[in-house]
C-alpha cells in the first residue's frame, strides 16, 4: 500500500484471518451437522468476504481471486439460489482448506501451486453455473457531492452532564465486580458526585457481606456522550439496573455544531450545484444529485427552521438496549472482547509470578523457624498472601491457555485428506473443543496428534467393504475429544474400526526382533508394542504412512511435554489413544526427596507408590542388579544417589524409601531415596536455558529455602536401567 | 485551513483490520478529525449526539449493516444530511439501487487503495 506503512497491519490481518477461517470452518461444520441457523451461512460468507477485503488491501491477488470466486458461490447458497447439499458442502470445505493454505502461503511469502485453485475454481463454476471472473458488471451509480452550505450538522446543545441511577443486583459482588472501580473510571471522564443509598442494608447480624444491597446515584458533569458512559458499565450490565438521564444543558450553552466547511451561497439541495463553491477547487467533482434525493430536500426546509431547537430533556434510556446486538456479535466472534498481547510479555509475567511463589515459600519457611505463637498476624497475613499468589498464578497461566478448537479444526482437515487418500468415508466428531490448554502445549501437540489421526483413518478404520461385510456403518467414525480431568488435560483419539490386530502385531514384533520369540505378552503389552521404535505394522506402505514417522516419535513428543499416552483397543469395536497432559509447562506437582544429602524433586505423575524396603521382597540379579517383586512382576531397583554418582549404592536398604515409578511404555523402576520431605507445587526452571542438558534431569526448581533442587526425568532414568531394556523382562514370573 | 483540517469523519467497520486500513488511509490524507465505531447501532447513537460531516461505513457488518445505518441516519433530524460513503465488496445492482434510494453519496469497492478511497471521498466533499 502506497498510502502508509501497511506492514503494521499485516500481522493483525493474518491473525484476524485465523479467526475468520475458524468461523468459516465452524459454519461448515454446523451446516454439516445440521445445527446451523439462518445466520450461519451469512457468517461464513462474511468471513470469506472479509478475508478477500483485507487481502485486496495488501495486494494479495491470488488470495483475492480465489476468495472472490468462493464468495460468489457462497452468495448463491446464501441467496437460496442453490442448495448446500452434501457435495456442495464437501466442495466448500475443500475450498475452505485451500483458502487456509492461500492465507498461510501469503503470510509466509510462499508460492502455492495454481492447479488446486484452478481445479476447485472449475468445480465452483459447475456449482454456480458461470465464471464470475468473466462477468464483473459495473453498477449504475452516480456519486453525489455534499453541499456543505446546506449541511446542517448542529445538534441540540450537549447536556451539562448526566445522572446515572445505578442499582446493583444482589449478586454483583459474586460476579467479581467492584463498583468502586467503575466510579473511579467515571471520575476520569468528568466531575463526579456519588450518593449511596444503603437503606436496604440489614443490621450487621443479618448482613451477608457477599450480597450487594446498595444503589447509587451518580451525578457527573462531563463533555463525553452517553455512549461513552455506557461503555464504563459494559461489564456489569448483566448484574445491575442502570438508567442514564441527561442533565439540562448549562445556561446559555451553545448548540453542538461542526465547523462550517464552506459555501457562502446555498443552493437548494435537490438542484445539483453547477460548481461546488470553495470545497471543489478544481471543479472536477461531479455534481449529479441522485434522483431520489428529493425526500431529503423536502425535509430540508423544516430542518433548518428548527436548527437550534429548544433543548429537550433527553429521554432516559436503558443501557440494556444495546445488549442484544452485542451479545449476538460476541456469539459470532466466538468469545468476548479480546486483546492481542505479545507472548513474551505473558511469559515474563509467568516467570515473575513463579519467582513470587518461590519468594513466598522462602518467606514462609523463614517465619516457620521464628517460633511465633500459633495465632499471629504474620502467619494470617502470609496465609492470605499465599492464597493471593496462588490465584495470581492461576490467572496468569490462564492467559496462556487457549481452546483446542483451532487445532481440532486442523485435524478435521487431516481427516478429510486421509479419508480421500484412502478412499474411506469418515465421519469426524470433535468434543470439548473449548477445553483450554497451554499455548505451547497446543502447538507442540499438532504433530503427534496429526500422526494419530492419520493412523486412526489409515490403520484404525477398516475399508468400506470390510465394514459392510461386518455389518457396520460403511462410514467410519473418528472422535477427537478433549477434557480436563484431575488437573490434567486428556485428549482422546478414538476410531470405531476393527481394533488392534494383536496376533499380527505380535508376529511383526517378533519378526523384527522387538520381543523374544517365546515371550508371552498381555493384550495391553501387545498394544504398547505399537509405540516401540522401529515398529511398523504396515503390510503395504500407504501413501499416508510412508513418512518415516512412527507412533514412537509421536509418543516421545508427547512425553517431552510431560504427557503420557495409553492405548485401549477392543477387537471389532475400535481403538482409543488417550493422551494425558499437564495443564502447564511452568509448574508441576513434585515430591521433594533427599538423596545422599541432596534435595531433588520427582514428578508426582510418575510415582505409582512408595514402599518400605523391609516390606517387599528384594532379589539380587547378577553382581549388582537388584529387583523387587511387585504384583507378579520384577521391577529393577535403581539407587538415585548412585546413578548420579553422589555415592556408592548402599548395601542395606533398611532406612531408605523406595519410590515405584512408571513411565509410558509401562516400564517401571523403583528408586532408592533416603527420605521424602514434602509434596508441593514447584516452579519449573529450564536447565538447558540456564546451564545445559544433563541426562536424567528434566529441569530445576528453587525451593522455599532458596536452594536449587533438580527435578529428575523418570523416563530417562528408566531407560538407562539395563535390565528392562527388553520389555519382556518385566514378565518374568 | 483546507477541508481536510475541518472535516469530521466517522468510520464504521466491525473488522479491526479493514477499519485500521481506512483510518490509516484517512491519516495519510491528513484528515484531522476522525472517530470510529465498531457497529451500526452505536454509530447511529453517537452520531445523533455528535454529528459529523461524513460517515464511511462498511456494508457487511453483523447486526445493522451499512445500509441499515444509512437508513437510520436519514431518519434522524440531526443526522439526515450527513454524507455517506459505503465500503462494499459487492456492487450488486440491487444493493446499489437501495443505496441510491437511501441517499448514499458514494461507494468504494473493496478491495481499495488509499488513493481510491481519497478519490471517492473527494467526489463527495471536494478536493481535500
UniProtKB/TrEMBL annotation, chain A:
Domain called CheW-like: residue spans: 587-723
PROSITE patterns registered for this protein in UniProt: CHEW, HIS_KIN, HPT
Keywords carried by this UniProt record: ATP-binding, Chemotaxis, Kinase, Nucleotide-binding, Phosphoprotein, Transferase, Two-component regulatory system
Chain residue ranges for the region called Disordered: 251-336
GO biological-process terms attached to the record: chemotaxis
Start-end of Basic and acidic residues biased regions: 318-333
A GO cellular-component term linked to this record: cytoplasm
One Pfam family recorded for the sequence: HATPase_c
EC numbers on record: 2.7.13.3
Classification via PANTHER family: CHEMOTAXIS PROTEIN CHEA, SENSOR HISTIDINE KINASE CHEA
Protein name from the UniProt record: Chemotaxis protein CheA
Organism the protein comes from: Marinibacterium profundimaris
TrEMBL record, chain B:
Keyword Phosphoprotein among UniProt keywords: yes
InterPro entries given in the database record: Bact_response_regulator (IPR050595), CheY-like_superfamily (IPR011006), Sig_transdc_resp-reg_receiver (IPR001789)
Modified residues (4-aspartylphosphate): 58
Name the UniProt record assigns to this protein: Chemotaxis protein CheY
PROSITE patterns, sorted: RESPONSE_REGULATORY
Top-rank taxon: Bacteria
Keywords: Phosphoprotein
Pfam families with a match to the protein in the record: Response_reg
PANTHER family: RESPONSE REGULATORY DOMAIN-CONTAINING PROTEIN, STRESS RESPONSE REGULATOR PROTEIN 1
Residues covered by the Response regulatory domain: 8-125
Any Gene Ontology biological process: phosphorelay signal transduction system
Coiled-coil parts of chain: none
Amino acid at each position: 500500500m502506497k498510502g502508509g506503512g501497511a506492514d503494521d497491519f499485516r500481522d493483525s490481518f493474518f491473525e484476524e484471518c485465523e479467526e475468520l477461517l475458524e468461523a468459516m470452518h465452524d459454519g461448515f461444520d454446523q451446516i454439516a451437522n445440521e445445527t446451523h441457523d439462518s445466520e450461519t451461512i451469512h457468517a461464513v460468507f462474511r468471513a470469506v468476504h472479509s478475508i478477500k477485503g483485507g487481502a485486496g488491501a495488501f495486494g494479495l491477488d491470488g488470495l483475492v481471486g480465489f476468495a472472490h470466486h468462493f464468495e460468489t458461490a457462497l452468495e448463491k447458497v446464501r441467496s437460496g439460489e442453490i442448495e448446500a447439499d452434501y457435495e456442495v458442502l464437501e466442495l466448500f470445505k475443500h475450498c475452505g482448506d485451500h483458502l487456509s493454505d492461500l492465507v498461510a502461503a501469503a503470510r509466509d511469502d510462499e508460492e502455492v501451486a495454481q492447479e488446486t485453485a484452478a481445479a476447485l475454481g472449475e468445480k465452483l463454476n459447475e456449482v454456480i453455473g458461470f465464471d464470475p471472473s468473466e462477468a464483473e458488471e459495473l453498477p449504475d451509480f452516480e456519486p453525489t457531492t455534499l453541499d456543505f452550505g446546506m449541511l446542517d450538522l448542529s445538534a441540540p446543545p450537549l447536556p451539562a452532564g448526566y445522572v446515572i441511577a445505578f442499582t446493583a443486583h444482589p449478586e454483583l459482588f459474586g460476579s467479581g465486580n467492584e463498583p468502586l472501580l467503575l466510579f473511579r473510571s467515571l471520575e476520569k471522564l468528568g466531575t463526579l458526585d456519588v450518593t449511596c443509598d444503603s437503606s436496604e442494608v440489614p443490621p450487621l447480624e443479618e448482613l451477608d457481606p457477599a450480597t450487594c444491597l446498595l444503589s447509587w446515584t451518580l451525578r457527573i458533569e462531563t463533555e463525553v456522550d452517553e455512549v461513552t458512559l455506557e461503555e464504563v458499565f459494559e461489564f456489569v450490565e448483566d448484574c445491575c439496573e442502570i438508567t442514564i438521564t441527561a442533565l439540562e444543558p448549562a445556561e446559555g450553552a451553545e448548540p453542538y455544531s461542526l465547523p462550517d466547511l464552506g459555501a457562502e451561497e446555498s443552493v437548494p439541495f435537490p438542484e445539483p450545484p453547477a460548481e461546488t463553491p470553495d470545497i471543489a477547487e478544481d471543479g472536477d467533482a461531479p455534481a449529479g444529485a441522485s434522483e431520489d434525493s428529493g425526500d431529503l430536500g423536502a425535509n430540508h426546509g423544516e430542518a433548518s427552521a428548527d436548527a437550534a431547537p429548544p433543548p429537550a430533556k433527553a429521554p432516559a434510556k436503558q443501557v440494556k438496549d444495546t445488549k442484544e446486538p452485542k451479545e449476538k456479535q460476541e456469539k459470532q466472534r466466538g468469545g468476548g472482547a479480546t486483546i492481542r498481547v505479545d507472548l513474551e510479555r505473558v511469559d515474563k509475567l509467568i516467570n515473575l509470578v513463579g519467582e513470587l511463589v518461590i519468594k513466598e515459600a522462602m518467606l514462609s519457611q523463614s517465619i516457620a523457624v521464628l517460633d511465633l505463637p500459633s495465632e499471629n498476624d504474620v502467619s494470617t497475613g502470609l496465609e492470605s498472601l499465599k492464597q493471593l499468589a496462588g490465584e495470581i498464578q492461576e490467572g496468569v497461566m490462564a492467559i496462556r491457555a487457549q481452546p483446542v478448537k483451532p487445532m481440532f479444526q486442523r485435524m478435521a482437515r487431516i481427516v478429510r485428506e486421509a479419508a480421500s487418500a484412502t478412499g474411506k468415508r469418515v465421519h469426524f466428531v470433535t468434543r470439548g473443543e473449548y477445553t483450554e490448554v497451554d499455548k505451547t502445549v497446543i502447538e507442540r501437540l499438532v504433530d503427534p496428534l496429526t500422526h494419530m489421526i492419520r493412523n486412526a483413518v489409515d490403520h484404525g478404520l477398516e475399508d468400506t467393504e470390510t465394514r459392510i461385510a461386518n455389518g457396520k456403518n460403511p462410514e467410519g467414525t473418528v472422535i477427537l475429544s478433549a477434557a480436563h480431568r484431575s488437573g490434567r488435560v486428556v485428549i482422546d483419539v478414538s476410531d470405531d474400526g476393527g481394533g488392534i490386530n494383536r496376533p499380527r502385531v505380535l508376529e511383526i514384533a517378533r519378526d523384527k526382533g522387538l520381543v523374544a520369540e517365546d515371550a508371552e505378552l498381555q493384550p495391553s503389552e501387545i498394544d504398547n508394542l505399537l509405540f516401540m521404535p522401529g515398529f511398523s505394522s504396515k503390510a503395504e506402505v500407504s501413501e499416508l504412512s510412508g513418512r518415516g514417522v512412527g507412533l514412537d516419535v509421536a509418543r516421545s513428543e508427547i512425553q517431552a511435554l510431560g504427557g503420557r499416552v495409553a492405548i485401549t483397543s477392543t477387537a471389532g469395536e475400535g481403538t482409543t489413544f488417550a493422551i494425558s497432559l499437564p495443564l502447564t509447562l511452568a509448574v508441576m506437582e513434585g515430591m521433594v526427596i533427599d538423596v545422599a544429602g541432596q534435595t531433588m524433586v520427582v514428578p508426582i505423575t510418575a510415582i505409582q507408590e512408595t514402599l518400605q524396603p523391609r516390606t517387599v521382597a528384594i532379589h539380587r540379579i547378577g553382581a549388582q542388579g537388584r529387583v523387587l517383586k511387585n504384583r507378579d512382576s520384577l521391577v529393577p531397583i535403581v539407587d538415585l544417589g548412585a546413578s548420579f554418582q553422589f555415592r556408592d549404592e548402599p548395601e542395606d536398604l533398611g532406612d531408605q524409601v523406595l519410590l515405584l515409578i512408571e513411565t509410558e511404555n509401562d516400564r517401571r523402576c523403583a528408586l532408592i531415596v533416603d527420605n521424602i520431605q514434602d509434596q508441593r507445587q514447584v516452579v519449573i526452571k529450564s536447565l538447558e536455558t540456564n546451564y545445559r542438558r544433563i541426562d536424567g534431569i528434566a529441569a530445576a526448581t528453587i525451593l522455599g529455602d532458596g536452594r536449587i533442587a533438580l527435578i529428575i526425568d523418570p523416563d530417562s532414568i528408566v531407560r538407562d536401567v539395563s535390565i528392562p531394556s527388553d520389555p519382556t523382562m518385566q514378565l518374568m514370573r | 485551513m483546507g477541508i481536510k483540517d475541518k472535516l469530521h469523519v466517522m468510520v464504521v467497520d466491525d473488522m479491526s483490520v479493514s477499519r485500521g486500513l481506512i483510518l490509516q488511509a484517512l491519516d495519510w490524507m491528513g484528515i484531522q478529525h476522525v472517530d470510529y465505531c465498531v457497529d451500526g447501532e452505536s454509530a447511529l447513537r453517537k452520531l445523533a449526539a455528535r454529528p459529523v460531516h461524513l460517515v464511511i461505513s462498511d456494508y457487511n457488518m453483523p447486526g445493522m449493516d451499512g445500509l441499515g445505518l444509512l437508513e437510520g441516519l436519514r431518519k434522524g433530524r440531526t443526522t439526515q444530511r450527513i454524507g455517506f460513503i459505503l465500503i462494499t465488496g459487492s456492487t450488486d445492482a440491487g444493493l446499489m439501487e437501495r443505496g441510491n434510494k437511501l441517499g448514499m453519496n458514494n461507494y468504494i469497492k473493496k478491495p481499495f487503495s488509499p488513493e481510491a478511497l481519497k478519490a471517492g471521498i473527494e467526489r463527495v466533499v471536494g478536493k481535500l
